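Researcher: Can you fold this with zinc ion in place?
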Amino acid sequence: MEAESAPFTLDDFRLRMERSAQAAAADGLDGLLITPGPDLLWLTGYQPTAITERLTLLVLRVDAEPQLLVPVLERPDAESAVGAGAVAMSDWRDGVDPYEAATPLLSVDGEYAISDSAWAMHLLGLQHRLPETRYVSVTDRLPMLRAVKDDNELARLEAAGAAADAAFGEIVKVRFAGRKETDVAADLARLLREFGHEQVDFTVVGSGPNGANPHHEAGDRAILAGDMIVLDFGGLKHGYGSDTTRTVCAGDPTDQMREVHDIVRAAQQAAFETVRPGVACQEIDRVARRVISEAGYGDEFIHRTGHGIGMTTHEPPYMVEGEQRPLVPGMCFSIEPGIYLAGRFGVRIEDIVTVTADGGHRLNNSDRGLTIVE
Ligand code: ZN
Ligand code: ZN
Ligand code: ZN
């Protein structure tokens, strides 16, 4: 057994709420409206046991103490959350209109950023009660709210990455040829749990032509000798995500398989070497794409280069053309270029990377060479 990571403290949650309210004010907003999901968990440590039609709403404003409105029957759970010590709590009972209960917490003609994961019925209910209030999405206006990780979050992400690397170290010892993709995927899920993940989110095993479809998860196809196999897997460990990809070959690769793998590896390396504070996110994408395009496979690199990771496995910042915001120390994201040859095979190599004061630091360090499996 390994040590538990240090728990988040009341001060951590207080600081996150303060900074978020300040970021909203700096962007000309009156505040933030947060419903259950990763934002609420990050801000308060609170996650209702079931996310239901009953309204739970955290209101953050720069000019007021944080306010958390909860269904009365969930109040004891909410009060036991660490961050509850930094909020003023109120509740509502079945039979009253929860949106009316929320009304005193908001300014009548204000503008608020609301959680992307807020149910439409809650937004519609608020709009009905406060027709002059304007709402924008958190991701639209404050996409970097959770993007810069603190030391405790980085330690958890690093541990999740190390566990994913350990899982890769074991998966290459199992038999591939003759087994189904779903069998290898089950092995991957078991290994992620063995190395401490409490949740497995995806176990992609894309063999042969299936590897050329980046959205393929795992299917009934029996892996053949000579197949390239894309392995992309991750989940949550101590609440923080892992996500790594390696491409292996079941037996002898062809010259083209080696060539394509070398190109993807060079693109991934070049993008990694570009990471440093102040560089625009889109530059990471451009550098990876340039390597692949110059090698003649630009049309076969059919997705963005990366995505942020934290309490969810896909979140801002995105390494994509058009994202001009700069990298900041503490940001954490994937670099995962790929080449997909329809009907034949695919290659992708993915590491999670954090931005340091003077460059980048990889949280995945398993062998990036073309590993041969049985
Ligand atoms: Zn991935
Ligand atoms: Zn990814
Ligand atoms: Zn490290």
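Model: Folded with zinc ion in place. The pocket of zinc ion (ligand 2) is lined by residues 243, 307, 334, 336, 350 (CB under 6 Å).
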